[in-house]
Specification:
By secondary structure, the chain is α+β, with helices and mostly antiparallel strands. The chain has a single domain, classed as Thrombin, subunit H (Beta Barrel). The strands form two sheets. The protein has a six-stranded antiparallel barrel. Strands 2-3-4-7-6-5 form a six-stranded antiparallel β-barrel. The chain is globular, with a radius of gyration of 20 Å.
Length: about 270
């Protein structure tokens, strides 16, 4: 039975140097670092983390959070562990979970193993991500219990209904007339340290398999909250097939290539 825990204002997307804890086995940790990527907007001023799921000769897919993909409407980049940059071709956001699958039209030469079973309480949890948009940071902790948390996903101007209780009046007054919008998410807790920018960081189990994906933290607690394995499996193996692809607005339109007389300049402008 999941517990209900109210946590507001904990989404981490807005906002390496490889730190390897002595608890890790070096070869496994190095491979986990290679699987993790940075996902940023075109301006490179905001973003989060992600993990390469699969690669073919022509395309690769990257798993991150849905709220990270919200930053990609006007285009974005996937930055690999070697700091090479790859333009986001399209993405698909889950309608049920804070998950998103990005596609780049390049071979990233990584295929990540998805854990077949959920981690047990006390199992080692290794988080590999890009807090504060640093190249790569590895932190370690342990998996804890699953619970339902309430996460602030946006806000709206306060209405008379919002202010019909004393608590509502206080929230509206302390938030400049805005009422937070909250949504319930299933999560699994870990004790691994995270920071803003850790959203979308893969959490590997003791066998080096993807077992969860960071999506939130609590500023009043050292714990991190991750999308549980069952949600990841459902999204990747079932839901994503039914979702339409969103193409960033700045991606080159095929018809404009054919009709534009200055093709070279257009390509340089968009892909510089």
């Amino acid at each position: 039975m999941s517990k209900l825990n109210l946590i507001l204002a904990i989404t981490l997307a807005t906002l390496g140097l490889i730190a390897i804890n002595s608890m890790s086995s070096l070869p496994q940790t190095v491979y986990e670092v290679q699987q993790s990527v940075m996902v940023v907007s075109n301006s490179k001023t905001s973003g989060g983390s992600g993990v390469v799921i699969s690669s073919t000769q022509e395309t690769s897919t990257v798993l991150t959070n849905g709220h990270v993909c919200n930053l990609l409407a006007n285009g974005g980049l996937v930055i690999s562990a070697d700091l090479s940059e790859h333009r986001v071709a399209n993405y698909r956001k889950s309608e049920q979970y804070d998950l998103c699958l990005i596609e780049v039209q390049e071979n990233l030469h990584i295929n990540t193993a998805i854990a077949p079973t959920s981690p047990i309480v006390g199992e080692r949890a290794t988080v590999v991500g890009h807090p504060l948009l640093l190249p790569t940071m590895v932190t370690e902790g342990y998996f804890s219990y699953k619970l339902t948390i309430m996460v602030e996903v946006g806000s709206h101007p306060c209405t008379d209904f919002d202010k019909h209780t004393a608590r509502g009046v206080w929230i509206c007054a302390s938030n400049g007339g805005m009422m937070p919008d909250v949504k319930a998410f299933e999560s699994i807790m870990t004790s691994a340290l995270i920071e803003p920018g850790s959203s979308g960081s893969p959490v590997f189990n003791s066998r080096g398999e993807l077992a969860a994906l960071i999506f939130a933290g609590d500023r009043n607690s050292p714990y991190s909250y991750a999308v549980p394995l069952e949600a990841i499996q459902f999204f990747l193996f079932s839901e994503v097939k039914l979702l339409s692809k969103t193409v960033p607005e700045n991606m080159l339109d095929a018809s404009s290539i054919i009709t534009n007389q200055n093709i070279d300049n257009q390509i340089k402008r968009i892909f510089k």
